[in-house]
Write a structure and sequence with these properties.
Blueprint lengths: L10 E4 L7 H6 L4 E6 L3 H4 L2 H11 L3 E5 L8 H14 L3 E6 L1 H13 L7 H4 L11 E5 L11 E6 L4 E6 L7 E4 L9 H19 L7 H23 L4 H14 L13 H13 L3 H16 L4 H10 L9 H19 L16 H8 L13 H11 L1
Parallel strand pairs: 1-8, 2-3, 2-4, 4-5, 5-8
Antiparallel strand pairs: 6-7
Bound molecules: 5,6-dihydroxy-NADP (NZQ) and zinc ion.
Amino acid sequence: MENFVYHNPAKIIFGKDQISQVGAETAAIGKKALLLTGGASVKQNGVYDKVLASLDEACVTVVEQSGIVPNPVIESVREGAELCKNKNIEIVLAVGGGSVIDAAKAIAAGATYDGDPWDFFKRIAVPEKPLPVGTVLTLSATGSEANGNTVISNPETGEKRPFYHSTLFPRFSILDPALTFTVPKDQTANGAIDILSHVFEQYFHNVKATPLQDGIAETIMRTVIDNAPVAIKKPDDYDARANLMWSSTLALNGLLVSGARGDWASHMIGHELSAKYGLAHGAALAIVFPNWMKRVYKVNIAKFARFAVNVWGMDKSTDAEELALGGIEATNRFFKETLGAKVTLGEHSIDGSRIDEMAESAMSISSLGSLVTFKKSDLVKIYESCL
Ligand code: NZQ
Ligand code: ZN
């Protein structure tokens, strides 16, 4: 096992009707909040009204910014940061999925920075004392509710870039599973694929002696595989939604990577597809991950065979390579047949004309992959296998 520091300051308030806590939690940090939301969903499903009522009861003054889009854009971050500066905002409260939460973190950092918030994503600036962020999570997927990551797109440059900073963890996150009853089937599927992908990124490594991390990862994967189809068939199944929600948080809150190692090449490969073609994050990963697995499994056949046995219930007496390939195929089938995801670029009418550009851009900030470190030619082959 490798050395690590595990420090997760995000307070999680989980369960039925916990949305009513948002006012008190916010007021304990600041009395003037920027309330950040996405599109119409929170107004249609009543979440917005409940949040406002709770904030009102706690005497929190609210300034609003709505319209954060999936794959949130830097222009909204710039607007939000200006709003915070001009209105003396004390806390940014995100009510939504990963996109709203990521935008909130970037706004919170931009609010106390004199330059352009895109500088963080270019890795030429780090946040200094960002405003605190609180969240009310409405979609189980990214883990942004309990980590220091933010991922923002810049349509002017055609880039989508992640940024991590230890000061960007939400101070609190309200995880009320019933708020996800209205998540549509395709977004529920995308969320499940994202959660699984976060586990894959931190499970397929070459670090020895990590039985605890491996076992937790396998339990999260089985939990998602069991519960996502239930939530798709019966959107208001509380237990299925609750299990997906807690899986979302545990998959990317620093726990799995502690003592192990993250890969993250597939995420960077997928981000290019979102940046260039607007694919939803989970939709991109559904295509990339099985193809990444096929390209790298030989480096650690034993781990891929273990995945097939412990996650997909395959017979452990089978030949290791056959098991490894069987686990990859089971993953692909689960995405396609059980979750109804598209697993090729062709199904999205995307051809290979921008592969070279995407491969170049994916590696422009840092080298890609830790299980296997990719050259540009490897990325080109992965994109080609996705067609
Ligand atoms: O905009 P609204 O109307 O709210 O609709 C959203 C959006 O259209 C809808 N939705 C959310 N909650 C709902 C709901 N619809 C009905 N009922 C509800 N309760 O779902 C759509 C997608 O929302 P979005 O926030 O974009 O999805 P997700 O949570 O998957 O976030 C994706 C973003 O997070 C980034 C992705 O790259 C992408 O930009 N990621 C963030 C990470 C992090 N911070 O750690 C890690 C991830 O790997 C990922 O990169
Ligand atoms: Zn992800």
